[in-house]
Amino acid sequence: MELREVNRMMYLRPDNGSLVDKRTHKEYNFSNLSYTPGSLGQCIIQSAADAVWGPSSYLKMKVRFSNSAEAIANITVGKNGSLASNLIESMRLTHRSGEIIEFIDNYNLLASIIKTWNTDAEDSKKLDSLLGGGIGVLGDVKTYEVPAAAGGNSGILTVDLIFPLWLLCGCFNNKDQYIPPNFLAGSKLELKFASNLVTFASAVPATVAIQIEPSIVLDSAKVYDSVAAQLLDQQSDVARSGLQFTYSTWFNNSSSTSTTQINVDVQQSASITQKVLCVLRRNDEIAANDRDSFQTESALADYQWRLGSTYYPQARVQLGPKQQSEAYMQSLIAWDSAPCQYQGHKSEGNCDVSLTDFQVEHAEAAADANSVSPHYATTLEKSGVGLTLTGEPTNNSRSLNFSATCKDAQARDVQIFLMYTRIANIMGQNLVVDR
Question: pLDDT at position 75, please?
C-alpha cells in the first residue's frame, strides 16, 4: 500500500481539507459616493466575522471625466505609473482600536516602481491594463480622450479601474495566511487622492471636471464554526500574544538636495528589514503640468548604503554615463530578480527590466521619458538562500544611511523607501503591532 502511494498509484478520492464553509466577493462603499482630486476618501470595512484572502481582493474605481467645452480634451498619463496608482498619494489603514496597521506616503511613486520591478512581463501587462482601464500599452504614454460637449450636455468619459489590494497594502499581500476576522472588521482605510498636477503628464483643461468613485471588494470566506472557535481561543490567549498575523509594509523618508551631495539617515526602527531603495526625481518635473511626475533619474556618480558599521556594498559603487551595470545588479538582487538568484525555483519578482532600459538618459518630454523607474536599491536580508524573516534590524543606535554624489547640481527630490516586516498581535478586540 505504501509503495503504491509512493509510486502515485493510489486511486482514491482526495480528502476535503478545506476549513472554509463559504467564499464570495463582498463590496464595501466609501463614506461618500464620489471624490475630487486632492480630497481624502474614507471607508469603514464592515467585514464582521469574515476571514479575507488578500491577494484576490481589490479596490474598484470609476473615474468620470466631464467636459463642458465644445472640443475634445486629451488628457495624458505618463509612461511611469498608471491612472489608478497615480491617483493615490498616500494610504492609511487603521484598526478599530486606533492602532495604525499601515501608512505609506508618496505611495503613487512607490507603486510605479513595484509594478515594474516586482512582476514579470506577462503579469505587468495584465496589471497595467487593470490599473489604466485597458487603455495604452505597457511602458507607453496613455491618453484619455474626453468627448466634446454637445446639445447643452457635457461630454462624459467613464474609466473603470481595478486596483489589486496586494499592491496597495502589504497586509493583503500575505500568501500564507487568511486575514483573520478581528484584524480587518471595523478598520478604516483612508486614501488621499493626488492633484491633477501630479496625476497627469498633460495639463487638465479648466473645462474638465474629474470625479472618483471608489469601493472595496474583499475575497471573503466564512470558516466552519469549529475553526472560528479555535481562532477565538487563540486570540484570548494573551500569554502567547494572541493570534499573530505577519505582513510587510513600507516606510517613506523624504528629503531634497540642490547640490551634488546626498546624505540621508532613514528615521525608522524595525526588527526585520527586507530591502531599501533611493529614488531621485527633478523638482521642476514634479511641479510641471506637462511632465511625467513619476519619471525617475539615473543621476548618480557614486553611492553607498550603510547600516551601523556594515556597508552595502563594501566598496562604493562608481557610476558613469551608460555605466550603470552595478547599480542595476544591486537593484535586481534587492527585488529577488537577479539571474538564477535562487536554486530550483523562479525568483519572486522576476522583473524584465533590461540594463539598456535602466540606463536610458533623462528626457524632457513625457513621451520620451524612461519607463522603467531606475533607482538605487540594496537587499537587507542576511540569508542569501531565499529564507524569509532574516532581515537586518534598524534602530536609533544602528541607523540606516544613504550617501551619494550626483553627476550634476540640480534641485532634486530624494525619496527613500524601506521595506520591513510587521507582526500584528490580535487579542480579542485589541491589536498590537510589532515592528
Answer: 92
